[in-house]
Structures are given as C-alpha cells and as structure tokens.
Amino acid sequence: MAQMTPELGARNLLVNCARATDGDRLLIAFEPSKYGYYDDRTVEVVAEAASALGLHVDTVNVGFNASNPHLAPDLLLRFEAADIILFLARLGDQLRFSGMPAGKTIVVSFAVAEKLLGSGFGNADHRGFEAIKSAVNGMFKAGAEVHFTCPLGTEVRGTMSAPLATEVDTTILRFPMSMFTPVPAATFSGRAAFTFLTGSGSRYYDNYTVEFDGPVFALLQDGVLTGFDGADGDVAKANAHYDRVAARFGIDRNFVHSWHAGIHPGCDYPWPMQDNYERWGGVSFGNPRILHFHSCGAYAPGEISWNIIDPTVTINGVNIWENGTLHADRILGGSEILAAYPDVAELFANPVRNIGIGD
C-alpha cells in the first residue's frame, strides 16, 4: 500500500465514510484520553483534516459514563445544529443512537488511536469494505448451510432460515467497516471454544472479563446456552459469571442472540489484551481472526461475548474464512471488489495477525 498517514486515515473517514462535503457542519463528540480508550491526538488529526476539507468543525467532550450513558438536553441541541456527528467516544455505541436527531450522518469510529488511524485499518478505502460487507451479507441466504470450527475444537453448524435483515438506517455508520451484519443464532447448535469471557461493550461492569486455565466449551442448542464443558473449576467460573451478569441486569441468562466475524485484515491491535479488556473488545473484533457470539440477553450485542480465535467458516461448502484468514476472492463478487480497490486487495494479500493475545 502507498504511504499511510493518520491524515489520510482522517480523510478516508470524512470523505469515503461520512461523505462530507465543503460547508458541512461537523460535530466531534469525543472521550478524553484519561479514560484509557480513545487518544486525544485522534481528535486533533480529524479536526485538522475536516478544516482542510472546508468543513465547519465543532468539538464537545462527552466523557464516559459506564453506568448511566445519556444525551443531556444541551448536548442534543448541539447535535441538532450539526450535519455530521462523529463519535470518538463510547457513548455512540452505548446509546445505540436512541434519541438521536433525524436527518444526520452519524459515525462511530473504532480507530481509537492515531496509530490505528494511520495504519491500513484507517487508510484502506472505506467504500471497498462497505462492498465486502454487502457481498458477505449476500452469501447468508435462506437455506445457506454454515459450519465453523477453530483449533481449540469449536464445532458449530446451522442452516439459514432467512437471509440477513440488512435494512438499516444508512446514516448510522461505523468506521472502519469491519463486520458483516450479525447472523441470528436461533438455528445454530454445537460447541464454541474459548479461553476467556468478556463483555460486549453494551454496558460496563466490574469483573468485565474472566480468563480460564484451559479451553471452555459453550454448549449451544438452537440459540440457547445449555451449559459449559471443560475443567470443573473453569466451568464453575463460567457459570458464576453468567449468573452474576444476568442477575445484575435482569436479562435472559441463556439467550444467544447472534454471531459475526471480522472482515478487515488491516485491523491491528498493537497492545496486550490484558492491559484493557474493554478497549480490546471494542477494536480487535474487526480482525478476521476473531468470530464472536452475542450472548446473555435477548438483544444484540448482549452482555457477554464468546470470542473464537482463528475460525474456519464454511458457507455452502466453501471455506470463506480459513484458520482466521478471510479469503475475499472466495466471496461471491469478491474478486471484482478487490480489482476495484487495490489498497484493499493488498491488505487481504498481507493480513495483520496481531490481535493482542500474544501469539
């Protein structure tokens, strides 16, 4: 790929994702770096790029509230005055855009640091990954047979009863585009293997992550968690975690809502997962090495995710993901997308393998 810079990443975000044009009013809602998630320099780079494009730029510190995220009336008024609202803050995901003013372009950025904005994750043409997402979604048609495995022993199968419900509010955008539409888990059964459980980024709570001494298997039957298998101590720890989280939020403990896998081979997580589990879960899930389920709660993304590392995902007999590598040329229409976006093709030819787990 040609030289990559944070400035080019910011331009990619504004032009190819938000579709910003000269004269647009941009409001950057940011979370200061003291909370350990986004860095302040990213706000500066995006603001400078926006000004160079002729945008009218405003910024507002929305902080971080783990237990009671909300839109204050004065903040809503500032949102009303903008054409584009860019969240460099977890608030965008926490609220899932409830109560947002209509007619706005709303973007949540997962390029949480200047380093990521200046990498292939931030620089590769956003439109190419929109096309990849659409092409993957198109493969999950009614009757599609899906099977996935992983090196730890995952064995899950399902048959699609309907195509993915891809109708979404197109003004709500994610940058970079790194996931396809979640696949409902209601028709999926089997054993999902993982070595830790962590939150989904929906809500934050103490003891957000539990790690196990060995692999644990979640037993899945038609979208319902029926139990865990593994060492006795690990199984007890998993059950206690589910009991605690479900009781805290008053949610369906055993409901497994959906799953999806990463589609962005430039999604780099250059920090150890253990340093910040919340940040890890909010960024690294876009790497094709990770497939995750949304569980514990009858809604997406639930409150506990199962992260399956290095999956092989077979759709109608074709290995689209193979040991954590997404083969875009095996997606229907994928070769044409790669030809149209050479920078995206280069990332698929040289995928980033670093997801912060020390392997």
Radius of gyration: 20 Å
Give the total of domains: 2
Q: Using the alpha-carbon principal axes, give the shape.
A: globular
Query: What would you call the quaternary organization?
Result: single chain
Total number of strands: 17
Order of SSEs, N→C?
HEHEHEHEHHHEEEEEEEHEHEEEEEHH
SSE topology sketch:
Elements: H1 6-17, E1 25-30, H2 40-52, E2 56-61, H3 73-80, E3 84-88, H4 91-95, E4 105-109, H5 114-117, H6 120-123, H7 126-139, E5 145-149, E6 155-159, E7 172-175, E8 183-184, E9 188-198, E10 209-221, E11 224-229, H8 232-249, E12 256-261, H9 277-283, E13 290-295, E14 304-309, E15 312-315, E16 318-322, E17 325-326, H10 334-340, H11 342-349
Parallel strand pairs: 1-2, 1-3, 3-4, 4-7
Antiparallel strand pairs: 5-6, 5-15, 6-9, 8-12, 9-10, 9-14, 10-11, 12-13, 13-14, 15-16, 16-17
3D architecture notes:
Helix content is 28%, strand content 27%. The protein contains eleven helices and 17 strands. The protein has helices at 6-17, 40-52, 73-80, 91-95, 114-117, 120-123, 126-139, 232-249, 277-283, 334-340, 342-349; strands at 25-30, 56-61, 84-88, 105-109, 145-149, 155-159, 172-175, 183-184, 188-198, 209-221, 224-229, 256-261, 290-295, 304-309, 312-315, 318-322, 325-326. The strands form two sheets. Strands 5, 6, 8, 9, 10, 11, 12, 13, 14, 15, 16 and 17 form a twelve-stranded antiparallel sheet that branches. A five-stranded parallel sheet has the order 2-1-3-4-7, with helices on both faces. Helix 1 (6-17) crosses helix 2 (40-52), helix 7 runs antiparallel to helix 10 and helix 10 (334-340) packs across helix 11. The longest helix is centred in the C-terminal third of the chain and has 18 residues, at 232-249. It is globular, with a radius of gyration of 20 Å. The relative contact order is 0.14. The mean pLDDT is 93.
